[in-house]
Amino acid sequence: MSEQKDTKKLKIGFHISITLFALGIIISSISGYGEMERATMYLILGVLIGGSSLFQFFKTVR
To answer: TM segments (predicted)?
Structure first.
């Protein structure tokens, strides 16, 4: 039983860190939108990564 609890905590921590990473990608692409040629691609990539990680986070918590 303890092993399942540890695994759940690890999954939650992993998805929180991935979500924060995706948020960083989104913020950096918005702040440097005029300077980068691929800012839109990074914005979409950040949204996709963040959305999938949030989905897995809520799936694990529930």
So the answer is: 12-33, 39-58
